[in-house]
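ESCALATION

Customer reports they have been waiting on this structure for their group meeting. Please prioritize. Original submission:
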Amino acid sequence: MAKHFAVAGGGWAGFAAAVELVRAGHQVTVFEAARTLGGRARRVAVEGRELDNGQHIMLGAYSESLRIMRAVGVDLRSAVLTLPLQMRYPPGGDGMNFLAPRLPAPLHVGIALLRARGLAREDKMALARFTTTARWMDWRLNNDCSVAELLQRFDQTPRLVTLMWRPLCLAALNTPPERASAQVFLAVLRDSLGARRAASDMLVPRADLSALFPDAAAAWLQAKGNTIHLGAKVSALQAAAGSWRVEASGAAVGGDWSGNFDGVVLAASSSATIALVEGMPGFAELASQLAAFEPEPITTCYLQYAPGTRLEIPFFALVDDPASQRWGQFVFDRGQLDARQDGLFAVVISASSDAAGLPQDVLTAAVAAQLAADLRRPEFAQPAWSKVITEKRATYACTPGLKRPANETPAKGLVLAGDYTAGDYPATLEMAVRSGVQAARLLAKAKV
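Update from on-call: job pushed to the front of the queue and completed.
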């Protein structure tokens, strides 16, 4: 029998849940407090420009994200740029050039390692030893530890840590290796380096993050008769006999609004979730668990140069060294992804608490100087326009042994969806989508 469910939150997890519920034959109403869909991975309007609140890379291993994007009609060939596994630093510097050929796994990684420039023999041997041992261990640890400790156990060289493992850890977990969970890091490596070749592909969004999935999902849902409320904040949830009462406020629902649903997917941030559940009977432990999560920011520094300004490839890795005011970890040439952003570069700083604490003009000047030095282009020190965007709660600190809540809650008919729920992956788009799909499947079969 078809039911009507509410989805509180219009981010990637919320829309994954909504789409999955509708595909199962149900009806949904989505409530999103903001005016733009996407949650913590969304489009923002800045001085007449449309930018992302953070530059992302997806992986070919993101099977659920790719599946559900296709389901709502996203043309992946035009929506993302697919690149082979790589870690490439600007030529002429002290970095490396690691580029996997399009060959079957694990041959693609082996050949990339043999051909890699900028790594000494001991570095290559250390990398080969790491991947071989990790496969033998089935990419699992008996006891979690930090990524830094794991790398030390595997005798990884300082140069390999600097050029390969540290940037990968920051990009995937948004947590420094000294504090990051080795088990979660291994899960990401298992599904990329340790899987089929296509799983290791790097997918760089051409479309903005809202258009990439949430906007398309909203249009798909509305075309099937479902309702999307933008600017509608869910303010309270209350279990009733056989249903859930949802209270919301905002212009989109005419001020204060309430209605009954057969169940609710709570797909808000962890902090917003606490506010909605902490007074409910049996939810004290969950609220306490979520309150222990430590937010980690991501900062993206956008630099506009003259039209026609290009990088040699779509993105380069950069060696960061905060002590030397070198904050950038990756630089993306947005013009190679979207012709409308010709000459625009996006420099990513993960786990950016220290960088985000600087005045924006100071951080911009430091990042621009880093690009000018690393790319040997003095003109990069003087961008024509710049903007720093920091998503303060982009993710949580993915630390060893962190307890993450299940999708199920103590209340029947109320499920959680979000990148913070229990799963193998860190706080990524894929984890959000997987959580939303799982939440929908639990709710669809639940007896309220």
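Sent to customer with the following note: Residues 131 and 262 are 48 Å apart (CA to CA).
Escalation resolved.
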